[in-house]
Design brief:
Layout: E1 6-12, E2 17-26, E3 29-37, E4 47-53, E5 60-66, E6 71-80, E7 83-91, E8 100-106, E9 116-118, E10 124-125, E11 129-130, E12 136-142, E13 147-153, E14 160-166, E15 171-178, E16 184-190, E17 203-209, E18 217-221, E19 230-234, E20 237-244, E21 263-270, E22 273-279, E23 287-294, E24 297-304, H1 313-316, E25 322-329
Antiparallel strand pairs: 1-25, 2-3, 3-4, 4-5, 6-7, 7-8, 8-9, 10-12, 11-12, 12-13, 13-14, 15-16, 16-17, 17-18, 19-20, 20-21, 21-22, 23-24, 24-25
């Protein structure tokens, strides 16, 4: 693995199961969203918490959103029309199976709207991104089909479907990132029928499309099933962060096995595969990272059980987790083609 220097900071460690993080930089601050809940599983006590920091070290609470008696999870942050937007998923079952996307917005990070439903019925929106600050694109997955799609909006409230990215093999959570030439890169968690012990056929689907993003070139990478993927760029190079399973043993420890150990890891996209660069200090129930560029640093948020106790994923789901932020100096990333970062 490539050595990249970084510093890890504990942001939240209060005995709760703090999970599903995201990051964004806006108006001179870094904003971090996560779900605070008793366990990994669905709970009406879950809340989406938004924190703010002016230096990436000291954090203060900016918002605490609830699902009006339903489980609220997996928040994503975006800035749309100069509004800070939080997207989150509603869930009613103990074994989480989200069924709708909701949003709240703020003009300043202090005053927040009530949550409201957005997106086509059944589609669960991921992190929106834009290349021109006019049109925002969001990946979305539908657990009933199952499928992954690309949606489009000009205001963050009304979303229309652009294309299906993939509708086979148990397509699930999806992340996107724009390339410098205008193409769009997607990474999709592929279940492939995996149950408690995972699947030998699972992995991460890597897909690319040129504008208008209706025809996708796809390849399945089985380095990992990248649960809760996040994509980001340094120059012309795209990186991924998400959950990694260090041990694969068939038939009981396939990709996604609940009895396996897990890590939050960083990868580089190399053509049709993922190259693993490093593991962040993590174990048990972990990952769902967020990424933001902050000055000369790349900040990566994630959650984890105690990294000193390498427990199986299933055991970690009911144990407390902390939210952490790893800070990387951009200069430590390998140079992109042409020598630019």
């Amino acid at each position: 693995m490539t050595p990249l220097g970084f510093e890890t900071r504990v942001v939240v460690d209060d005995g709760q199961h703090n999970a599903f993080t995201d990051l964004i930089a806006w108006r001179g601050s870094v904003w971090l969203a996560y779900t605070a809940s008793p366990t990994h599983f669905g709970s009406p006590q879950s809340r989406v918490v938004v924190l703010r920091s002016s230096d990436g070290r000291a954090w203060t609470e900016a918002a605490r959103l609830d699902g009006a008696g339903e489980d609220l999870r997996d928040p994503k942050l975006a800035v749309i029309r100069d509004q800070l937007v939080v997207l989150a998923l509603l869930n009613r079952s103990a074994n989480p199976r989200p069924y709708a996307t909701v949003r709240a917005e703020s003009p300043d990070g202090q005053r927040w709207s009530a949550i409201s439903r957005v997106g086509p019925d059944g589609w669960l929106l991921g992190k929106p991104k834009t290349a021109d600050n006019e049109t925002w694109y969001a990946p979305a997955h539908n657990l009933e089909i199952p499928a992954s799609a690309l949606l489009r909006s000009t205001d963050g409230r009304s979303w229309e479907t652009v294309s299906l990215i993939h509708d086979r093999n148990g397509a699930d959570e999806t992340a996107i990132e724009f390339l410098p030439d205008g193409r769009l890169q997607a990474a999709i968690r592929i279940e492939s029928g995996g149950g408690y012990f995972g699947s030998a056929m699972a992995g991460t689907l890597l897909a690319r499309a040129r504008p208008p993003f209706v025809e996708w070139q796809r390849s399945l990478c089985q380095v990992t099933r990248l649960d809760g993927p996040a994509l980001f760029s340094v120059g012309a190079t795209i990186y991924a962060a998400g959950r990694f399973q260090p041990i694969l043993r068939w038939p009981f420890q396939g990709h996604g096995s609940m009895i396996s150990r897990k890590r939050c890891s960083l990868f580089r996209l190399d053509g049709e595969t993922l190259t693993r660069l490093l593991d962040l200090p993590s174990a048990g129930d972990t990952a769902y990272p967020g990424v933001a560029r902050w000055g000369t640093q790349i900040l990566v948020s994630y959650y984890t059980n105690d990294p000193g106790r390498d427990r199986a994923w299933i055991l970690g789901m009911r144990a407390p987790t902390s939210v952490r932020v790893a800070a990387f100096d951009i200069s430590t990333f390998p140079p992109t083609p042409g020598g630019r970062r």
